[in-house]
Protein backbone atom coordinates (compact mmCIF):
# COMPACT_ATOMS: atom_id res chain seq x y z
CA UNK A 1 0.00 0.00 0.00
CA UNK A 2 1.38 3.46 -0.86
CA UNK A 3 1.97 5.91 1.97
CA UNK A 4 -0.68 8.23 0.45
CA UNK A 5 -3.22 5.39 0.45
CA UNK A 6 -2.32 4.43 4.01
CA UNK A 7 -2.71 8.04 5.19
CA UNK A 8 -6.00 8.38 3.30
CA UNK A 9 -7.40 5.36 5.15
CA UNK A 10 -6.26 6.78 8.52
CA UNK A 11 -7.66 10.19 7.64
CA UNK A 12 -11.04 8.72 6.68
CA UNK A 13 -11.22 6.84 9.99
CA UNK A 14 -10.06 9.74 12.20
CA UNK A 15 -11.14 13.01 10.56
CA UNK A 16 -14.70 14.04 9.67
CA UNK A 17 -15.53 14.26 5.97
CA UNK A 18 -16.67 17.87 6.46
CA UNK A 19 -13.11 19.05 5.93
CA UNK A 20 -12.83 17.93 2.33
CA UNK A 21 -9.49 17.74 0.50
CA UNK A 22 -9.21 18.63 -3.18
CA UNK A 23 -6.59 15.90 -3.76
CA UNK A 24 -5.94 12.45 -2.25
CA UNK A 25 -2.24 13.23 -1.66
CA UNK A 26 -0.44 14.03 1.58
CA UNK A 27 2.33 16.63 1.77
CA UNK A 28 5.86 15.70 2.75
CA UNK A 29 7.59 18.98 1.93
CA UNK A 30 7.19 22.02 -0.32
CA UNK A 31 9.51 24.71 -1.75
CA UNK A 32 8.31 27.72 -3.78
CA UNK A 33 6.10 26.22 -6.56
CA UNK A 34 7.03 22.57 -5.91
CA UNK A 35 5.49 20.09 -3.51
CA UNK A 36 6.44 16.47 -2.76
CA UNK A 37 3.90 13.95 -1.48
CA UNK A 38 4.24 11.15 1.07
CA UNK A 39 5.36 8.74 -1.69
CA UNK A 40 8.09 11.12 -2.84
CA UNK A 41 6.30 12.27 -6.00
CA UNK A 42 6.92 15.85 -7.14
CA UNK A 43 4.10 18.21 -8.14
CA UNK A 44 3.82 21.79 -9.29
CA UNK A 45 1.48 23.54 -6.90
CA UNK A 46 -0.89 25.96 -8.68
CA UNK A 47 -3.14 26.15 -5.61
CA UNK A 48 -0.59 27.26 -2.97
CA UNK A 49 -2.83 26.46 -0.01
CA UNK A 50 -5.77 28.34 -1.60
CA UNK A 51 -4.06 31.60 -2.56
CA UNK A 52 -1.93 31.74 0.59
CA UNK A 53 1.68 31.23 -0.53
CA UNK A 54 1.77 33.99 -3.19
CA UNK A 55 5.44 34.34 -2.22
CA UNK A 56 5.90 30.57 -2.69
CA UNK A 57 6.22 27.79 -0.14
CA UNK A 58 8.83 28.58 2.51
CA UNK A 59 10.20 31.78 1.00
CA UNK A 60 13.70 32.02 2.58
CA UNK A 61 13.05 35.58 3.85
CA UNK A 62 9.73 34.58 5.42
CA UNK A 63 11.28 31.53 7.08
CA UNK A 64 14.23 33.49 8.42
CA UNK A 65 11.93 36.25 9.81
CA UNK A 66 9.91 33.59 11.62
CA UNK A 67 13.06 31.89 12.94
CA UNK A 68 14.30 35.21 14.32
CA UNK A 69 10.94 35.83 15.99
CA UNK A 70 10.96 32.32 17.53
CA UNK A 71 14.16 33.23 19.36
CA UNK A 72 12.51 36.26 21.04
CA UNK A 73 8.91 35.42 22.02
CA UNK A 74 6.08 33.44 20.41
CA UNK A 75 2.97 34.66 22.23
CA UNK A 76 2.11 37.25 24.82
CA UNK A 77 -1.40 38.23 23.59
CA UNK A 78 -1.46 41.75 22.15
CA UNK A 79 -4.20 42.50 24.70
CA UNK A 80 -1.83 41.72 27.59
CA UNK A 81 1.63 42.98 26.65
CA UNK A 82 1.66 44.45 23.18
CA UNK A 83 4.63 44.39 20.78
CA UNK A 84 6.13 46.82 18.28
CA UNK A 85 6.08 44.64 15.11
CA UNK A 86 2.24 44.54 15.32
CA UNK A 87 2.12 48.34 15.32
CA UNK A 88 4.71 48.56 12.52
CA UNK A 89 2.67 46.14 10.36
CA UNK A 90 -0.50 48.17 11.03
CA UNK A 91 1.41 51.28 9.93
CA UNK A 92 2.57 49.54 6.73
CA UNK A 93 -0.93 48.37 5.82
CA UNK A 94 -2.46 51.76 6.67
CA UNK A 95 0.03 53.32 4.26
CA UNK A 96 -0.51 50.74 1.50
CA UNK A 97 -4.31 50.45 1.66
CA UNK A 98 -6.57 52.56 -0.57
CA UNK A 99 -8.20 54.12 2.53
CA UNK A 100 -7.37 57.58 3.90
CA UNK A 101 -6.70 57.83 7.67
CA UNK A 102 -6.70 54.07 8.14
CA UNK A 103 -6.16 51.96 11.25
CA UNK A 104 -5.61 48.19 11.29
CA UNK A 105 -6.36 45.39 13.77
CA UNK A 106 -5.11 41.80 13.39
CA UNK A 107 -6.84 38.46 13.90
CA UNK A 108 -6.05 34.87 12.92
CA UNK A 109 -8.40 33.64 10.17
CA UNK A 110 -10.21 35.22 7.26
CA UNK A 111 -13.63 34.42 8.72
CA UNK A 112 -12.65 36.20 11.93
CA UNK A 113 -11.67 39.32 9.96
CA UNK A 114 -15.04 39.27 8.16
CA UNK A 115 -16.95 38.74 11.45
CA UNK A 116 -15.22 41.80 12.87
CA UNK A 117 -15.86 43.87 9.74
CA UNK A 118 -19.59 43.25 10.19
CA UNK A 119 -19.38 44.03 13.90
CA UNK A 120 -17.60 47.34 13.21
CA UNK A 121 -20.10 48.26 10.49
CA UNK A 122 -23.03 47.61 12.80
CA UNK A 123 -21.52 49.49 15.74
CA UNK A 124 -20.45 52.44 13.56
CA UNK A 125 -23.81 52.85 11.79
CA UNK A 126 -26.21 51.65 14.48
CA UNK A 127 -27.87 49.59 11.71
CA UNK A 128 -28.31 45.83 11.41
CA UNK A 129 -28.70 44.80 7.78
CA UNK A 130 -25.85 43.47 5.62
CA UNK A 131 -25.94 42.81 1.90
CA UNK A 132 -23.59 40.27 0.30
CA UNK A 133 -23.56 38.86 -3.23
CA UNK A 134 -24.70 35.60 -4.72
CA UNK A 135 -21.75 33.29 -5.26
CA UNK A 136 -19.67 35.19 -2.68
CA UNK A 137 -17.50 33.33 -0.18
CA UNK A 138 -16.79 34.96 3.17
CA UNK A 139 -16.17 31.95 5.46
CA UNK A 140 -17.78 29.00 7.20
CA UNK A 141 -18.67 30.35 10.68
CA UNK A 142 -22.33 31.05 11.52
CA UNK A 143 -22.20 34.71 10.44
CA UNK A 144 -19.71 34.40 7.57
CA UNK A 145 -21.46 31.24 6.34
CA UNK A 146 -24.68 33.22 6.22
CA UNK A 147 -22.89 35.89 4.14
CA UNK A 148 -21.53 33.22 1.79
CA UNK A 149 -23.79 33.14 -1.22
CA UNK A 150 -23.90 29.38 -1.81
CA UNK A 151 -25.87 26.81 0.18
CA UNK A 152 -24.31 23.45 -0.74
CA UNK A 153 -22.00 22.54 0.99
CA UNK A 154 -21.39 25.58 3.20
CA UNK A 155 -24.78 26.03 4.87
CA UNK A 156 -26.63 22.80 4.14
CA UNK A 157 -28.66 21.62 7.11
CA UNK A 158 -27.00 24.15 9.43
CA UNK A 159 -30.25 25.58 10.74
CA UNK A 160 -31.92 28.94 10.26
CA UNK A 161 -29.72 31.55 8.61
CA UNK A 162 -28.41 34.42 10.71
CA UNK A 163 -31.02 37.20 10.40
CA UNK A 164 -30.34 40.54 8.73
CA UNK A 165 -28.37 39.18 5.75
CA UNK A 166 -29.51 39.62 2.12
CA UNK A 167 -27.98 38.52 -1.17
CA UNK A 168 -27.91 40.56 -4.36
CA UNK A 169 -26.92 39.27 -7.80
CA UNK A 170 -23.23 39.68 -8.72
CA UNK A 171 -22.68 40.91 -12.27
CA UNK A 172 -21.55 38.07 -14.53
CA UNK A 173 -22.51 39.23 -18.04
CA UNK A 174 -21.76 35.92 -19.79
CA UNK A 175 -24.14 34.15 -17.38
CA UNK A 176 -26.80 36.74 -18.14
CA UNK A 177 -26.38 39.18 -15.23
CA UNK A 178 -25.34 42.69 -16.36
CA UNK A 179 -24.24 45.51 -14.06
CA UNK A 180 -27.72 47.03 -14.51
CA UNK A 181 -29.31 43.71 -13.50
CA UNK A 182 -27.13 43.59 -10.39
CA UNK A 183 -28.25 47.11 -9.41
CA UNK A 184 -31.86 46.24 -10.12
CA UNK A 185 -31.36 43.33 -7.70
CA UNK A 186 -29.96 45.66 -5.05
CA UNK A 187 -32.76 48.20 -5.47
CA UNK A 188 -35.28 45.33 -5.24
CA UNK A 189 -33.82 44.30 -1.87
CA UNK A 190 -34.43 47.87 -0.65
CA UNK A 191 -38.06 47.64 -1.81
CA UNK A 192 -39.00 44.14 -0.63
CA UNK A 193 -36.58 43.02 2.09
CA UNK A 194 -35.02 45.88 4.06
CA UNK A 195 -35.04 49.66 3.72
CA UNK A 196 -31.69 51.14 2.66
CA UNK A 197 -31.63 53.25 5.85
CA UNK A 198 -31.42 50.04 7.91
CA UNK A 199 -28.47 48.57 5.99
CA UNK A 200 -25.11 48.83 7.77
CA UNK A 201 -22.86 47.50 5.02
CA UNK A 202 -22.47 45.94 1.62
CA UNK A 203 -19.64 43.40 1.45
CA UNK A 204 -18.05 42.57 -1.89
CA UNK A 205 -15.06 40.67 -3.23
CA UNK A 206 -13.48 42.76 -6.04
CA UNK A 207 -12.85 39.40 -7.73
CA UNK A 208 -15.08 36.61 -6.45
CA UNK A 209 -12.79 33.80 -5.27
CA UNK A 210 -14.60 30.54 -4.48
CA UNK A 211 -17.52 31.93 -6.48
CA UNK A 212 -15.61 31.56 -9.76
CA UNK A 213 -12.97 34.29 -10.21
CA UNK A 214 -15.55 36.68 -11.62
CA UNK A 215 -13.93 40.11 -11.82
CA UNK A 216 -16.22 42.95 -10.71
CA UNK A 217 -16.59 45.39 -13.63
CA UNK A 218 -15.17 48.84 -12.90
CA UNK A 219 -18.48 50.69 -13.32
CA UNK A 220 -20.07 48.21 -10.90
CA UNK A 221 -17.62 49.09 -8.13
CA UNK A 222 -17.92 52.82 -8.83
CA UNK A 223 -21.74 52.65 -8.76
CA UNK A 224 -21.63 50.52 -5.61
CA UNK A 225 -19.58 53.18 -3.83
CA UNK A 226 -22.08 55.85 -4.92
CA UNK A 227 -25.06 53.76 -3.82
CA UNK A 228 -23.43 53.31 -0.40
CA UNK A 229 -22.74 57.05 -0.13
CA UNK A 230 -26.32 57.91 -1.14
CA UNK A 231 -27.73 55.76 1.68
CA UNK A 232 -25.07 56.05 4.42
CA UNK A 233 -24.10 52.39 3.94
CA UNK A 234 -20.51 51.24 4.52
CA UNK A 235 -18.61 49.46 1.75
CA UNK A 236 -16.52 46.46 2.85
CA UNK A 237 -14.07 44.97 0.34
CA UNK A 238 -13.18 41.37 1.18
CA UNK A 239 -9.62 41.07 -0.13
CA UNK A 240 -8.86 37.80 1.64
CA UNK A 241 -8.27 35.92 -1.63
CA UNK A 242 -7.38 38.88 -3.88
CA UNK A 243 -4.75 40.58 -1.71
CA UNK A 244 -0.97 40.84 -1.68
CA UNK A 245 0.21 40.95 -5.29
CA UNK A 246 -2.14 38.25 -6.57
CA UNK A 247 -4.00 40.63 -8.91
CA UNK A 248 -1.00 42.80 -9.80
CA UNK A 249 -1.57 45.22 -6.90
CA UNK A 250 -1.29 44.85 -3.13
CA UNK A 251 -5.09 45.30 -2.97
CA UNK A 252 -7.36 44.43 -5.91
CA UNK A 253 -9.48 47.46 -4.92
CA UNK A 254 -6.63 49.64 -6.23
CA UNK A 255 -7.70 48.63 -9.76
CA UNK A 256 -10.99 50.47 -9.24
CA UNK A 257 -10.25 53.99 -7.90
CA UNK A 258 -12.81 53.29 -5.21
CA UNK A 259 -12.22 53.94 -1.52
CA UNK A 260 -13.81 51.26 0.67
CA UNK A 261 -14.64 51.95 4.33
CA UNK A 262 -13.25 48.61 5.50
CA UNK A 263 -10.98 45.97 3.94
CA UNK A 264 -10.54 42.41 5.19
CA UNK A 265 -7.20 40.68 4.60
CA UNK A 266 -5.76 37.23 5.42
CA UNK A 267 -4.26 34.34 3.39
CA UNK A 268 -1.23 35.69 1.42
CA UNK A 269 -0.66 38.47 4.00
CA UNK A 270 1.62 36.16 6.00
CA UNK A 271 2.75 33.74 3.26
CA UNK A 272 1.71 30.52 5.01
CA UNK A 273 1.32 31.57 8.66
CA UNK A 274 -2.12 32.23 10.19
CA UNK A 275 -2.79 35.97 10.26
CA UNK A 276 -5.72 38.12 9.19
CA UNK A 277 -6.61 41.75 9.57
CA UNK A 278 -9.21 44.45 9.25
CA UNK A 279 -8.20 47.81 7.82
CA UNK A 280 -10.69 50.66 8.14
CA UNK A 281 -11.25 54.39 8.21
CA UNK A 282 -10.23 55.50 11.70
CA UNK A 283 -13.58 57.20 12.36
CA UNK A 284 -15.35 53.88 11.65
CA UNK A 285 -13.00 51.17 12.94
CA UNK A 286 -12.50 53.06 16.22
CA UNK A 287 -16.20 52.81 17.21
CA UNK A 288 -16.24 49.45 19.09
CA UNK A 289 -15.33 49.92 22.76
CA UNK A 290 -11.95 48.79 24.11
CA UNK A 291 -12.25 45.02 24.57
CA UNK A 292 -14.95 44.79 21.90
CA UNK A 293 -12.50 43.39 19.38
CA UNK A 294 -9.49 41.10 19.54
CA UNK A 295 -8.85 37.45 20.35
CA UNK A 296 -6.22 35.46 22.22
CA UNK A 297 -4.09 34.73 19.15
CA UNK A 298 -5.08 37.80 17.11
CA UNK A 299 -1.93 39.29 15.54
CA UNK A 300 0.33 36.42 16.60
CA UNK A 301 3.98 37.58 16.69
CA UNK A 302 4.88 34.70 14.35
CA UNK A 303 2.30 35.73 11.72
CA UNK A 304 3.27 39.38 12.09
CA UNK A 305 6.98 38.59 11.54
CA UNK A 306 6.08 36.55 8.44
CA UNK A 307 3.86 39.36 7.10
CA UNK A 308 6.66 41.93 7.35
CA UNK A 309 8.86 39.60 5.29
CA UNK A 310 6.02 39.07 2.76
CA UNK A 311 5.65 42.84 2.31
CA UNK A 312 9.45 43.14 1.81
CA UNK A 313 9.50 40.28 -0.72
CA UNK A 314 6.58 41.78 -2.70
CA UNK A 315 8.51 45.08 -2.98
CA UNK A 316 12.04 43.64 -3.49
CA UNK A 317 11.01 41.06 -6.08
CA UNK A 318 8.50 43.40 -7.79
CA UNK A 319 5.80 40.77 -7.44
CA UNK A 320 2.95 43.04 -8.55
CA UNK A 321 4.56 43.44 -11.98
CA UNK A 322 5.43 39.73 -12.00
CA UNK A 323 1.75 38.85 -11.33
CA UNK A 324 0.72 40.82 -14.42
CA UNK A 325 3.31 38.97 -16.51
CA UNK A 326 2.31 35.52 -15.21
CA UNK A 327 -1.39 36.26 -15.72
CA UNK A 328 -0.84 37.46 -19.29
CA UNK A 329 1.18 34.31 -20.11
CA UNK A 330 -1.47 32.04 -18.55
CA UNK A 331 -4.22 33.69 -20.60
CA UNK A 332 -2.14 33.43 -23.80
CA UNK A 333 -1.53 29.71 -23.24
CA UNK A 334 -5.19 29.10 -22.29
CA UNK A 335 -6.39 30.83 -25.48
CA UNK A 336 -4.10 28.52 -27.48
CA UNK A 337 -5.44 25.44 -25.61
CA UNK A 338 -9.00 26.63 -26.26
CA UNK A 339 -8.19 26.87 -29.99
CA UNK A 340 -7.01 23.25 -30.27
CA UNK A 341 -9.51 20.73 -31.68
CA UNK A 342 -8.47 17.92 -29.31
CA UNK A 343 -8.85 19.63 -25.89
CA UNK A 344 -11.91 19.54 -23.61
CA UNK A 345 -14.11 22.55 -24.53
CA UNK A 346 -13.00 25.72 -22.72
CA UNK A 347 -15.46 28.59 -22.27
CA UNK A 348 -14.73 31.98 -20.73
CA UNK A 349 -11.10 32.75 -19.78
CA UNK A 350 -10.76 35.57 -17.26
CA UNK A 351 -8.89 37.03 -14.35
CA UNK A 352 -6.98 39.94 -12.92
CA UNK A 353 -3.17 39.71 -12.73
CA UNK A 354 -2.16 36.20 -11.69
CA UNK A 355 -5.69 35.36 -10.48
CA UNK A 356 -6.69 33.49 -13.62
CA UNK A 357 -9.51 31.04 -14.32
CA UNK A 358 -11.29 29.33 -17.18
CA UNK A 359 -14.60 27.53 -17.54
CA UNK A 360 -15.24 24.08 -18.93
CA UNK A 361 -18.33 23.87 -21.11
CA UNK A 362 -20.16 21.05 -22.86
CA UNK A 363 -19.19 22.02 -26.44
CA UNK A 364 -16.68 24.22 -28.22
CA UNK A 365 -18.09 27.72 -28.63
CA UNK A 366 -20.88 26.97 -26.12
CA UNK A 367 -21.63 28.34 -22.66
CA UNK A 368 -23.26 25.40 -20.85
CA UNK A 369 -21.27 24.54 -17.69
CA UNK A 370 -19.59 21.11 -17.58
CA UNK A 371 -18.91 20.27 -13.89
CA UNK A 372 -18.11 16.60 -14.68
CA UNK A 373 -15.28 17.58 -17.05
CA UNK A 374 -14.07 20.07 -14.43
CA UNK A 375 -13.62 17.47 -11.68
CA UNK A 376 -12.13 15.05 -14.23
CA UNK A 377 -9.60 17.75 -15.20
CA UNK A 378 -8.52 18.35 -11.58
CA UNK A 379 -7.83 14.59 -11.21
CA UNK A 380 -6.08 14.27 -14.61
CA UNK A 381 -3.88 17.31 -13.93
CA UNK A 382 -2.84 15.73 -10.62
CA UNK A 383 -1.93 12.50 -12.42
CA UNK A 384 0.38 14.57 -14.64
CA UNK A 385 1.91 16.26 -11.57
CA UNK A 386 -0.06 19.52 -11.35
CA UNK A 387 -2.18 20.63 -8.39
CA UNK A 388 -5.11 22.85 -9.43
CA UNK A 389 -8.44 23.75 -7.81
CA UNK A 390 -11.90 24.10 -9.19
CA UNK A 391 -14.35 26.76 -8.03
CA UNK A 392 -17.46 28.52 -9.21
CA UNK A 393 -21.12 28.90 -8.71
CA UNK A 394 -21.64 26.38 -11.54
CA UNK A 395 -18.76 24.10 -10.40
CA UNK A 396 -17.20 24.40 -13.87
CA UNK A 397 -14.31 26.80 -13.27
CA UNK A 398 -10.63 25.97 -12.85
CA UNK A 399 -8.58 28.56 -10.99
CA UNK A 400 -4.85 28.86 -11.50
CA UNK A 401 -3.05 30.15 -8.43
CA UNK A 402 0.63 29.60 -9.17
CA UNK A 403 2.86 31.34 -6.64
CA UNK A 404 3.79 34.76 -7.98
CA UNK A 405 7.42 33.69 -7.44
CA UNK A 406 7.09 30.71 -9.83
CA UNK A 407 10.12 30.49 -12.19
CA UNK A 408 9.25 30.84 -15.90
CA UNK A 409 10.23 27.24 -16.74
CA UNK A 410 7.97 25.84 -13.99
CA UNK A 411 5.10 28.04 -15.14
CA UNK A 412 5.46 26.54 -18.64
CA UNK A 413 5.90 23.03 -17.22
CA UNK A 414 2.67 23.38 -15.23
CA UNK A 415 0.76 24.77 -18.21
CA UNK A 416 2.08 21.87 -20.36
CA UNK A 417 0.69 19.44 -17.77
CA UNK A 418 -2.64 21.26 -17.86
CA UNK A 419 -2.72 21.06 -21.66
CA UNK A 420 -2.05 17.29 -21.57
CA UNK A 421 -4.84 16.86 -19.02
CA UNK A 422 -7.28 18.81 -21.23
CA UNK A 423 -6.47 16.47 -24.13
CA UNK A 424 -6.95 13.40 -21.88
CA UNK A 425 -10.33 14.64 -20.62
CA UNK A 426 -11.52 15.22 -24.21
CA UNK A 427 -10.28 11.74 -25.28
CA UNK A 428 -12.02 10.07 -22.31
CA UNK A 429 -15.30 11.88 -23.12
CA UNK A 430 -15.04 10.71 -26.74
CA UNK A 431 -14.39 7.10 -25.69
CA UNK A 432 -17.30 7.05 -23.21
C1 LIG B 1 -12.85 36.02 -0.01
C2 LIG B 1 -12.72 35.17 1.21
N1 LIG B 1 -13.22 35.62 2.38
C3 LIG B 1 -13.13 34.90 3.51
C4 LIG B 1 -12.54 33.65 3.52
C5 LIG B 1 -12.46 32.88 4.80
O1 LIG B 1 -11.12 32.78 5.22
P1 LIG B 1 -10.67 31.62 6.24
O2 LIG B 1 -10.81 30.33 5.51
O3 LIG B 1 -9.24 31.97 6.58
O4 LIG B 1 -11.56 31.72 7.42
C6 LIG B 1 -12.02 33.14 2.33
C7 LIG B 1 -11.42 31.80 2.29
O5 LIG B 1 -11.28 31.16 1.25
C8 LIG B 1 -12.12 33.91 1.14
O6 LIG B 1 -11.64 33.46 -0.03
Automatic annotation (TrEMBL):
Q: Which Pfam families match?
A: Aminotran_3
Q: Gene3D superfamilies, from UniProt? A: Aspartate Aminotransferase, domain 1, Type I PLP-dependent aspartate aminotransferase-like (Major domain)
Q: Which InterPro entries match?
A: 4NH2But_aminotransferase_bac, Aminotrans_3, Aminotrans_3_PPA_site, Class-III_PLP-dep_AT, PyrdxlP-dep_Trfase, PyrdxlP-dep_Trfase_major, PyrdxlP-dep_Trfase_small
Name of the featured protein: 4-aminobutyrate--2-oxoglutarate transaminase
EC numbers on record: 2.6.1.19
* Class in the EC hierarchy, top level: transferase
List the GO biological process terms: gamma-aminobutyric acid metabolic process
Q: Which organism is it from?
A: Gimibacter soli
Amino acid sequence: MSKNAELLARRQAAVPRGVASATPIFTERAENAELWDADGRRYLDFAVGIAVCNTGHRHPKVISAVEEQLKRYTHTAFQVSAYEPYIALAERLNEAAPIKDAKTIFFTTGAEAVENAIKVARVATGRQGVIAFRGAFHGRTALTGALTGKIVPYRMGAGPAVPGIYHAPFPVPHHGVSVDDAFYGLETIFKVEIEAKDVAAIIVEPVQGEGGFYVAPKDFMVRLRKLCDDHGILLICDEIQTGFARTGKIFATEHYDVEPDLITVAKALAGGFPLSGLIGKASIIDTPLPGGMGGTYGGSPIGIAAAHAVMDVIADEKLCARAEKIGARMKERLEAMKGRVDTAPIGDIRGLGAMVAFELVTEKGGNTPNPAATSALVAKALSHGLIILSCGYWANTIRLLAPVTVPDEQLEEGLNMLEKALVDVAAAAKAA
